[in-house]
């Protein structure tokens, strides 16, 4: 029993086997793979279902993902949890790097620094996360990301480092 009696809400999340998708992705260049996901020809990563995230734009070295946060992503103080922004930023930073890689070459996040500039709230429209490669390397790549609200206000920024795996 809690002190607050509020209506119970629910959210159903579905996804497809991510290991099968990853195996398919290893046969394509990063750009081809990311475009196939954005176009719905390849299932997205399961994390995208949790946040309602979809790919809006995939170009070499730059990607854009959008989501419309709902209250199921709230933290205990009534705003979208910072982990949502961090996850979206990690996704766009890493996937921007991925678009520069040939088939069979992967990446992993090594470092992500996030700066939170404004709170994110449900019911205020889509948020847009953009990631772009700053410096490509044979072993390490550097990228930046940002999240903006529907009005274009900057909500969070990130810089990230990815290790290239062969």
TrEMBL record:
Q: Which Pfam families match?
A: 4HBT (PF03061)
Coiled coil region boundaries: none
Which residues are the signal sequence here? none
Any single GO molecular-function term of the entry would be: hydrolase activity
SUPFAM superfamilies for the chain: Thioesterase/thiol ester dehydrase-isomerase
- Where does the record place the Thioesterase domain? 78-155
Superkingdom of origin organism: Bacteria
Q: Which Gene3D superfamilies match?
A: Hotdog Thioesterase
EC number, UniProt record? 3.1.2.-
Keywords on this record? Hydrolase
Family under the similarity heading: Belongs to the thioesterase PaaI family.
Q: What is this protein called?
A: PaaI family thioesterase
């Amino acid at each position: 029993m809690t002190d607050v009696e509020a209506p119970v809400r629910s959210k159903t999340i579905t996804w497809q086997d991510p290991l099968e998708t990853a195996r398919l992705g290893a046969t394509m260049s990063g750009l081809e793979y990311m475009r196939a996901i954005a176009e719905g020809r390849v299932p997205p990563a399961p994390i995208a279902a949790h946040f309602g995230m979809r790919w809006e734009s995939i170009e070499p070295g730059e990607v854009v993902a959008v989501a419309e946060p709902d209250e199921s992503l709230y933290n205990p103080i009534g705003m979208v949890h910072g982990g949502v922004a961090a996850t979206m930023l990690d996704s766009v930073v890493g996937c921007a790097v991925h678009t520069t890689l040939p088939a069979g070459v992967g990446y992993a996040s090594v470092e992500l620094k996030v700066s939170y500039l404004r709170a994110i709230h449900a019911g205020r429209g889509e948020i847009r996360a953009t990631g772009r490669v700053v410096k490509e390397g044979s072993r390490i790549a550097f990228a930046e990301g940002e999240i903006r609200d529907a009005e274009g206000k900057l909500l969070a920024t990130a810089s990230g480092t990815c290790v290239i795996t062969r």
